[in-house]
Amino acid sequence: MEHAQPAQLKTILLVDDGDDFRVTTKWFLTHFGYIVDAARNAEEGLALFNPAIHDLVVTDNSMPGMTGAEMAHVIKLRSPATPILMYSGNPPDDQSCLDCVIQRPAHLLALKDAADKLLAESWPPPHDAEPSSESNDKTTDARSTTLRTRRQKAKSC
């Protein structure tokens, strides 16, 4: 008798300097089956971020020190395929590094729905056999196309 492979749990890095928001959002997303790592600021978020672990980054923009948008630029340099969702009352003018922006106040269900959508559009990196170089080229082209499409849709998530 064959058993279906259990769905892989998705891990979210949540970055927000607001303690109440961070704790509430972590609790909320955890109850929908996500693993959530939380950071109090962008610098701590960058120290925690690992593209092999984190499937999605959720961040505020207005934080002391580095902003969420600045952190998003650094993350995209390290891992262009990692989607970044900004949930902020003060989103930046330059949203080129963001895959989705939700302006606060908005219900946490809107955040969860956007996270679900971004994660459904992404795919896990291959962990097993090394694909051929031709396959790598096709995968890179497909990821580039997907990233451009995500950025074009960022306002409509």
Descriptive report:
There is one protein chain. This protein has 157 residues and is α/β, with parallel strands linked by helices. It has a single domain, classed as Rossmann fold. The protein is built from 5 helices and 5 strands; from the N terminus they run βαβαβαββαα. Strands 2-1-3-4-5 form a 5-stranded parallel sheet, with helices on both faces. α2 packs parallel to α3. It is globular, with a radius of gyration of 16 Å.
Key words describing this protein structure:
15% strand; Rossmann fold; 5 helices; disordered N terminus; globular; 41% helix
Largest sheet composition:
5 strands, parallel
**For the record, what is the CATH homologous superfamily label?**
Response regulator
**Into which percentage range does the β-strand content fall?**
5-15%
What integer is the average pLDDT?
A: 83
Low-confidence stretches: 1-6, 126-156
Radius of gyration (CA) equals 16 Å
How many structural domains can be distinguished in the coordinates?
A: 1
Main CATH class: Alpha Beta
Walk across the major sheet and give the strand order: 2-1-3-4-5
Give a short overview:
With 157 residues, the protein is of the alpha/beta class. It contains five helices and five strands.
